[in-house]
Write a structure and sequence with these properties.
This protein is of the alpha/beta class. The chain has helices at 2-15, 88-91, 93-100, 160-173, 193-202, 212-220, 245-254, 256-268, 271-274, and strands spanning 22-26, 38-44, 62-68, 71-77, 105-114, 123-132, 177-184, 206-208, 224-234. A five-stranded mixed β-barrel has the order 5-8-7-6-9. Hypoxanthine is lined by residues 111-113, 190-191, 207-209, 232-233, 235, 243, 248. Hypoxanthine (HPA) is lined by residues 111-113, 190-191, 207-209, 232-233, 235, 243, 248.
Length: 275
């Protein structure tokens, strides 16, 4: 695995020798957020060694590197998912490779179903913590000691200093920002109402099919992680209707302006962390 990761890292560095320190990962339907960056380079996921093609509608599968204000960023449009039939170590491979190439801070976004009845569709939730109920873990297998320890601490997966920047940026922009626990499930079926009731009892606030594996793998490497969910729909049984992917994409689209403004403001303040 380490040799695959090194090849993927070398490929990224051959296209982008000074890989950005900040990576933003866009969830379903959010591909056009931060499309205003001054793009220097585009790297297709499928060209990165050992990365299979992204197969989900709403995900284009590329990394766009460029300037956002005074910071260079890598914006990932799309990611890989467990439900595509990939191992979690494959799902996290591009992110580990970016971290090995020099990225230090990862802003992970996703589309999620809202477990709270009073959080309206297209609202934004800062991820305080997660419940990874995928039944697997990206670190299963021999530990890659070059990357991190066998039993990495997960007490603060989502960086409190970064969350605090998000909170104050949202306040300044008057963007409502909830904060809660993201439940990661494997999918691809949406949940049943009974499952959602169980997740609520367990302390979940939003549910989705991504983010936790990347966050675990990146924390293993000691990288800084923060997560934002776009609550695209009320989870099954919370509202009255049924769920479908096009509603998820439409609703994520409606959050586009707010998410774009929030990320731009937060990244503008990243100097507070990166100098
Ligand atoms: N459940 C799981 N994943 C999701 C949902 C949902 O309701 N909405 C968007 N992604």
């Amino acid at each position: 695995m380490l040799s695959k990761l090194s090849e993927a890292r070398d490929f990224l560095l051959s296209h982008c020798p000074d890989f950005p320190k900040i990576v933003v990962v866009m969830g379903s339907g959010m591909g056009s957020v931060l499309s205003g960056i001054a793009v220097e380079k585009e790297i297709l996921f499928k060209d990165i060694p050992h990365v299979p093609p992204v197969s989900v509608e709403g995900h284009t599968g590329k990394i766009r590197v460029g300037m956002l204000g005074k910071h260079r960023v890598a914006v990932c449009q799309g990611r890989l998912h467990f439900y595509e039939g990939l191992s979690l170590s494959t799902v996290v491979l591009p992110f580990r490779a970016m971290a090995m190439a020099g990225a230090e801070t990862f802003i992970l976004t996703n589309a999620a179903g809202g477990i709270h009845p009073d959080w309206p569709p297209s609202s934004l939730m800062l991820i305080r913590d997660h419940l990874c109920l995928m039944g697997s873990n990206p670190l299963i297998g021999p530990n890659l000691a070059e990357l991190g320890p066998r039993f990495p601490d997960m007490t603060e997966v989502y960086s409190e200093p970064l969350r605090s920047i998000f909170r104050s940026a949202a306040k300044r922009l008057a963007i409502p920002l909830y904060e809660g626990v993201y439940v990661a499930i494997h999918g691809p079926s949406y949940e049943t109402p009974a499952e959602i009731r169980m997740y609520r009892l367990l302390g979940g606030d939003a549910v989705g099919m991504s983010t936790a594996p990347e966050a675990i793998a990146l924390r293993h490497m000691g990288k800084r992680v923060v997560g934002i969910s776009c609550i695209t729909n009320l989870a099954a049984g919370v509202g009255s209707g049924t769920l479908n992917h096009s509603e998820v994409l439409d609703s994520a689209e409606q959050a586009h302006g707010r998410l774009n403004a929030l990320l731009t403001e937060v990244i503008g303040r990243m100097g507070e962390l990166h100098g």
